[in-house]
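This part of the workshop introduces the protein records we will be handling. A record pairs a protein's sequence with a compact description of its fold. Backbone structure tokens are a discrete shorthand for how the chain folds in space. The question running through the whole workshop is how a given chain folds. The record below serves as our worked example for the rest of this section.
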Amino acid sequence: MTSIEELTTLATFGSTWAVLAVGHNVADHVFGQSDHQAANKGAPTAEDVAAGVNPRRGWAACLAHVSQYHLVLAALLALVRLFIPLPLSMTGLAAGFAWSAATHALLDRRWPVRWLLQRTGSPAFAELRTAGLNGMYLADQALHSGALLVSALLITRL
């Protein structure tokens, strides 16, 4: 038999994951990123660096996006908590948001996504940009979802 504590944990995890999943789409595509940030958050290419571009270029835009993104997530989670009494701890919230911010910033530099696709047998997918599809974007979104799953676990269990 399942205890009330286990049911509470399951409901909290499910609710938290749902808010983070919805929040990700709202923050990444509507309120949490300017055109400037989207265009400039990636790391310069190896060719750009070889031509003299500073390898740190893009970090300001990336961190500004990650900050806005997480403000949107926090606002949505706070809104849901007004109506659903989710038992969340400050430790869990801090851990979950720290994990999300770190992974989001790293993935949005773009080279880690390309590196992963190239080493997992999908270099052509990394270059896909036809028929309305973009392999790097799709992989980026999938990896963000996986990172948010871990964030939901941290928020729920800590």
